[in-house]
Amino acid sequence: MATTPPTPHAHPVIPPFTFPAHAHPRAWLLTSAASPLGVALARAILAHGDSAVLCVEPCVLVDLGWSRSGAQKHWWGNPKGDGVAIPGRGIRVDDFARFVREEVRGGEWEGRAAVAEAVEAFGKIDILFCATSEAVIGTIEELAASQNTQTLIREQFETNFFGPVNIIKAALPAMREKRAGHIIALTGITSHLGTPGLGIYCASGWALEGFCDSLAYEVAPFNIKMTIIQPNLEINVLTNKVSSAPMMPAYSPDSHPAPLSRSIIGGLLERLEPPSPPLSDADSPTDGHSQHPSALHSTEKVEVIFPLLGEEMKGSLLAETIHALTAVGGHENPPARHIVGYEAVASVKEKLKTVSEELEDFVEISGAVDIDEGQGDVGDAGSGEGA
C-alpha cells in the first residue's frame, strides 16, 4: 500500500516568541549554531537582549571569511552594529555574540574551549542548548552490510550522542560553581517512537535521553535544570544533513510492505519547493552531493543530501520549536521533557496508550514472579524442615 508522506505546515499559527521573566540578560551557549535551527534561535535570543556564544563548524567560518560582515549576513541577513574582530578566536557582534570553532563530532577539549569562551565573554553560562542532529537512513540490515555503512553507525553516535555529551560535561563545572544553569538537549519524537528505517537515528536519540534523564537527578542539588526538547521528525531531518545507506532489494518499496522512512522522507522532499531565488554556490551546503530525493533509493553507495529549503519554508518548519525553546529556556521550573506541536503530542500519547494497554494485558504475568508477604525470603523457597 502506498504511503502518503506527511506535509509540513505551510503557515502555522504561532504566537509571538515569549521568554520567562528574568532580571538580567542571560548568556546562552548554542551548538550547531549555523544550522537553520541555530540561526533562527540566535536571532530570537539576541533580539530579546540576551547574549550568546555560537559554536560553528570551521568550514562555515572559512566560508564566512571570519569577517563581521559575512557573519552578519548569515545570521541576521543585513549589517548590524559595530562588531569587533577578535583575531584567532572568533568574532564578537554588538558585544552580545561570539562565534567559536566547533567540530560536530567534537571531543572534550573542544567543548571546554567553547565553555571557556562563554565564561570569559559573559562570566557565566545560563542556558546550554545542544542543537546538533543529523539523520542516517537505512534498515538495520542495510547499515550492517559493509564497512562504509557501519561507519555511518559510529558517525551517527559521535554526532548525535557523544557531541552533546562532551559539551554538557564541559559546561557542568561552570554551572556548578554558579549553582545555576539550564541544559537543553534536542532529540525528537523518534526518541519515543521506534521508526522503521531510522533505527540507528532513534537509538542515538534514546541514548542521549537516557544520559539526560540520569544527569537531571545528579545535578538537581546544584540548581541545574535539564530539559529534553522533542520536535517532529520533519524538523531534524529536513533542516540538517541526511545520509542514506545503499538500499537492499528486500527493503525496496516494491518488495517491502511496511512504509519505511526512506520512502516517506523521499516523498516529502519531492513535494518541497526549492529555494527562491536559488542558493548561490557560496550559500549552498551541498558540497557536490546529490540533491534529488531519488538518491535516497540508491542501491550502490552511501548518499548524502542537504535539503535545500527556502527561507519561508524553514521559518514555517522551525516556528513551533523556536517558540518552545524561548518559552522554556531559563524557566524557573522547566519541564524535564517538552514535546513540540499537536501532531507530535498526539503521536506520543498514542505510544504511551499502547504501552499502558500492554502493561495491563500482561500484569498478571508480571506480578506472578513476586514473592507474597509471609512466604519468607527467596532463599527459603523450596526448603523445609529436615532438608
Characteristics of this structure?
three-stranded mixed sheet, 41% helix, disordered N terminus, alpha/beta, 387 residues
Please specify the SSE layout and strand pairing.
Elements: E1 27-30, H1 36-48, E2 51-56, H2 58-63, H3 68-75, E3 84-86, E4 90-93, E5 97-101, H4 108-122, E6 127-130, E7 135-137, H5 140-143, H6 147-178, E8 181-186, H7 199-219, E9 224-230, H8 233-238, E10 242-244, H9 261-271, E11 303-305, H10 311-328, E12 337-339, H11 342-361, H12 363-367
Parallel strand pairs: 1-2, 1-6, 2-5, 6-8, 7-10, 8-9, 9-12
Antiparallel strand pairs: 3-4, 4-5, 10-11
Helix pairs in contact: 1-10, 4-6, 6-7
Short description:
The protein has helices at residues 36-48, 58-63, 68-75, 108-122, 140-143, 147-178, 199-219, 233-238, 261-271, 311-328, 342-361, 363-367; strands at 27-30, 51-56, 84-86, 90-93, 97-101, 127-130, 135-137, 181-186, 224-230, 242-244, 303-305, 337-339. The chain is an alpha/beta fold and 387 residues long.
